[in-house]
Write a structure and sequence with these properties.
Helix content: 40-55%
CATH class of the largest domain: Alpha Beta
CATH architecture of the largest domain: 3-Layer(aba) Sandwich
Distance between the termini: 77 Å
Structural class: alpha/beta
Strand content: 5-15%
Radius of gyration: 27 Å
Length: 473
């Protein structure tokens, strides 16, 4: 079998050299190019089986080169590489025919594996028939979905899959501030339903007695103030997307009605007898542990399994610290334009502090911190003193309570504050540990422990039995 050929296109010499050495060691014939013109020349003379292509070149746009290469030889594999990965560029690359996408900084073994997997997929496709020439090249800009880590690139790929598949339900999981709403909007923007409405409802912000009316509407006379017939969100969405944010906080009674909409595509207005049919896509999101809620009977298992078909998990910022420089640069550029500033970046000291801080509020907290610095700081650089106090002196409180990785500092004015462990923890574990702490603090006096936890003694005993505590009276 002939040796497979790889062309590496990047204007950074060290990147070209390290990738070339890695691919040569893996048994490939390798050529490199540092400009778009050189890449085109070697594409014609070297005829590579695979191209590792930087998206930003000094004389060319990587996306345009990608489309040119794919148009001339669709069977050639192309993996895009960039230091500034965000959803818009990733989707455009994949829509333009890219076979995969890698963000900088990358691990060489990850790039090698991606190359091997790509070539294997291309070989399999060649056996099954010709590769179609990509035609969809629509451009959509979505704010704040930025990141060059492997996790975020995988998220971007899933958004593309969700957009193209038109799966009727998508579940987005992630902590507060990770960008779940932005993911939902991106799925809408990159789908065939993009011309139809996108309607969001926060299930935790609307009282239970009003939520049904908000979602399904009502008939005239359905209740005292119902002087006219009103459409609800599902009816107004037509063939668009309904985004059910914080679905983990939805009351059980409403969960049953949502399940019916998913399964039968039907509902009734409040006070109505007519069954209405609806063709909408439901994107649900939550920061809660749904399996734990199901186990405790607080979330319907059948609804969970209906939602958990295509699931996108957004990693917290502390688990993708490699994205910080990209995110910071992105926010500085956006906020410079918004406020008429000219910040060029952040000082090494400020970057060190931001890299060290765990960002419990995730991307939202980072943006707020950069906005504060841009508003209050002096150009050209953001300095440590421009950052919020908690970033400059992060997590210096003396821990008062510790339980399985959870640290909860106490304060006479602030009360209890919980710091999640990096690996996460379920609500059941939190509940069990709090009960253990209360019992220990009150020498197994159940009455006092129950008072400390704000529950009755019978409730405490029930929960102790549930978690397997020894009942020491």
């Amino acid at each position: 079998m002939a040796q497979q050929k790889v062309l590496i296109v990047d204007d950074e010499k060290m990147v070209c050299w390290s990738l070339a050495e890695t691919m040569k060691a893996a048994g490939y014939a390798v050529e490199t190019a540092s400009t778009g013109a050189e890449a085109v020349e070697k594409f014609n003379t070297f005829t590579p089986d695979l191209i590792l292509l930087d998206i930003s070149l000094p004389d060319a746009n990587g996306i345009e080169l990608l489309r040119r290469f794919k148009k001339e030889r669709p069977a050639t594999g192309v993996i895009m590489i960039t230091a500034d990965a965000h959803l818009d560029s990733t989707i455009k690359a994949l829509q333009g025919g890219a076979d995969d996408y890698v963000g900088k900084p990358f691990k060489l073994d990850h790039v090698e594996k991606t190359a091997i997997d790509t070539l294997e997929r291309l070989a399999q496709r060649a056996l099954n028939g010709p590769i179609p020439d990509p035609t969809k090249t629509g451009e959509v800009h979505t704010d704040q979905l930025v990141g060059s880590s492997e996790q975020m690139v995988e998220v971007f790929k899933l958004v593309k899959i969700c957009g193209e598949s038109d799966c009727k339900t998508v579940l987005v999981l992630g902590e507060s501030g990770t960008g779940k709403e932005l993911i939902a909007k991106a799925i809408h923007d990159y789908s065939a339903r993009s011309e139809q409405p996108f309607i969001e409802v926060n299930c935790a912000a609307i009282p239970e007695n009003l939520l049904e009316n908000e979602l399904f509407g009502h008939e005239k006379g359905a209740f005292t103030d119902a002087s006219t017939k009103e459409k609800g969100i599902f009816e107004s969405a037509r063939e668009g997307i309904v985004f059910l944010d914080e679905i983990g906080d939805m009351p059980l009674a409403m969960q049953a009605k949502i399940l019916k909409v998913i399964e039968n595509r039907t509902f009734r207005r409040v006070g109505g007898r007519e069954t209405l049919t609806v063709d909408v896509r439901i994107v649900a999101a939550t920061n809660r542990d749904l399996p734990a809620l199901v186990q405790r009977g607080e979330f319907r298992s059948d609804l969970y399994y209906r939602l958990n078909v295509l699931t996108i998990r957004l990693p917290p910022l502390r688990e993708r610290r490699g994205c910080l420089p990209t995110l910071i640069d992105y926010f500085i550029r956006r906020l410079n334009a918004e406020y008429g500033k000219r910040f060029s970046g952040v000082s090494p000291g400020a970057m060190e502090l931001m890299q060290r801080y765990p960002w419990p509020g995730n991307v939202r907290e980072l943006r707020n911190a950069i906005e504060r610095a841009v508003m209050l700081g002096s150009e050209p650089e953001i300095l440590p003193e421009h950052l919020p106090e908690e970033v400059m002196t992060p997590w210096q409180e003396e821990p008062a309570l510790t339980m399985a990785g959870i640290t909860a500092p106490t304060s006479s004015t602030d009360g209890l504050r919980i710091r999640l462990p990096p690996g996460g923890i379920t609500m059941s574990e939190v509940e069990m540990k709090l009960i253990a702490m209360a019992l220990q603090q009150h020498d197994n006096n159940q009455t006092k422990a129950a008072q400390a936890l704000g529950m009755s003694r019978d409730t405490l005993r029930y929960r102790m039995k549930k978690f397997g505590f020894t009942d020491k009276k």
